[in-house]
Amino acid sequence: MATHENEKSEKGVAHASSIDEAKFQYNDDGDTIIEGSEGVTQRDLDTYRHVADRLPYTAWLVVIVEFAERWTYYGTTNVFNNYIRAPLPPGSTTGAVTAANRAVGVAGALGQGVQKSFAIRTLICFQFNSFWVYITPFVGGIVADTWLGRYKTILLFSVICLAGHIVLVGSATPASLAKPDAALGLLVLSIVIMGLGAGGIKANVSPMIAEQYTGKLRKETLPSGEIVIKSPAVTIQSIYLWFYAAINFGSCGAISASFLARDHGYWSAFIVPTGIFILVPFVLIFGRKHYVVTPPRGSILVETLRVISFALEPRWSLNLIRTIRNCRAPDFWDPAKPSSYEKGKVPAKITWDDEFVGEVARTLSACTVFLFFPFYWLCYSQIDGNLGTMAAAMTLNGTPNDLIQNLNPITIIVFIPIFDYIIYPFLRRKGINFSPIKRIYAGFIVAGLAMLYAAVLQHFLFKMSPCHDDKPSECVDPATKNPLAAPINVWVVSGPYILVGISEIFASITSIEYAFTKAPKRMKSVVMAFSQFQTALSSALNFALVSVNVEPRFAWLFGSFAVTAWVVGTIFFVVFRDLDRREAELNAIGSGDREGFSNESS
């Protein structure tokens, strides 16, 4: 909303609070040295290649925390379907299949049946869990920014999440499985507790990893003799690439969970992720004296709402168009600034300074970027279900149809080093400014291509399936009841999974980076929570589309998502092209002394 007013207010804040002519420094040639750098001039910045700095080891410790949390998430939710739907195999008290029957047997536990299992799994284990785990980051963000700080908040919510995993293991013990209703109740309770814990961690671990890097803009001569610029912005970009790689390495927990459940039972499948999650508090405690931590500020949300209220109060009008125009005015934030009032006439309710008003403006500007993401996540959500249904209608040749979806994290794991070490450095070497707004736009475009690929493939699947568009995934021979597959190799469906993975590198990773770099340090957890909340909104949109989310309409559904991604992505780029031009300026705003980090133990 507030692009131009942000610019003026933030410039005004910088001028009022920190900038005067005496602060400018110059080198021997009279070139201006960039404030906050180690002697880097604007000429240096425009001349030399920008490269990433070395990541501190504490950042890698945070990577371990994220890996362990994601492994436990995927390593449990992946087996919920059979756990709820299928009964205990013959002779089993744990859900494991006996060795003699593993070729054809299916692990199971609660025996709720297909229809009831679908309702429980869809509404609780996926829809509710997806919504819940992306709502609870607000709780973690508020606790961190206003009370405990990020380090202590992650530690607190890791204990909560660990308690949820212990309840989940308890639901799968032989004593619990002997009473399926009790086991189901424990399962639902564990989902609620784990979702709260995971959400609290998610809001804080993303900003905390980037906070570990405290380097400044500086020149360095490589062994080859080339002079380069060690850039904090490029370093943050690299940090989040590897952070996202950790997420997808963690998703490999889904592969092992199925075999653990089948061979050793569900208590075993659940206790392994629990054991891995125990790493989280130990890693946090191990590095407690070395982490860079941000102290909490207090009731920052209350002050934020008051700032917005002061700015909005004189702008309201019964004429909606006039109200919108007023909100876009360059002086929109002036009524909330103490400097706008005569000395001695500042309202008593204004307990902040001009710098804080600039932070609020910047925070809202960052949050508006994320409002477009629910449409991106709609495209992403297709890889979890509908593409697997497509695969089930193809010629499998012994390949499990749900195995293909692992191509998504594998793509991300393979391509992140390629982007970090080859593609992005090549673009920088050629002077191409592939800024965050451009990268997010590219993510929308590639996600749309993935949906177009899926739509075209679904068209040919309808055409070549013996059942055509009458649920090809359920097509069977009437006489033998054996599946009748379309003569299309199942690996052809890998295209959308690979394209969505590449789009995540552009859009999803960059959104995390953007949330960190554009939010003031005192509000980073809340802004990160807001960015993740868009996934919850996408889950709600998906739920609203249940009536059209049926196999005969898949081609139209995928095609619609492709067009939506391209249109929304283009609108996104047009709306935020001014922020794109001001990228370097926005990264420099709001880093005053009051926001400084601390290396003290939390």
Task: Characterise the protein shown here.
The chain is mainly alpha-helical. The protein has a domain at 57-204 and 250-292: MFS general substrate transporter like domains (Growth Hormone, Chain: A, Up-down Bundle). It contains 26 helices and 7 strands. It has a 3-stranded mixed sheet with strand order 3-5-4. The protein has a two-stranded antiparallel ribbon with strand order 1-2.
Could you tell me the CATH topology label of one domain. Answer: Growth Hormone, Chain: A
Uncertain runs are 1-24, 589-602
Number of strands: 7
Question: Main sheet?
Answer: 3 strands, mixed
Strand numbers in spatial order across the main sheet: 3-5-4
* Number of distinct helices: 26
Which helices and strands occur, and which strands form pairs?
Elements: H1 4-17, E1 25-26, E2 32-33, H2 42-47, E3 49-51, H3 57-77, H4 80-85, H5 114-135, H6 137-148, H7 150-171, H8 174-177, H9 180-211, E4 218-221, E5 227-230, H10 232-250, H11 253-264, H12 266-277, H13 279-286, H14 300-312, H15 320-327, H16 354-370, H17 373-381, H18 386-392, E6 394-395, H19 407-429, H20 436-464, E7 486-489, H21 494-506, H22 508-518, H23 524-544, H24 554-575, H25 577-581, H26 583-588
Parallel strand pairs: 3-5, 6-7
Antiparallel strand pairs: 1-2, 4-5
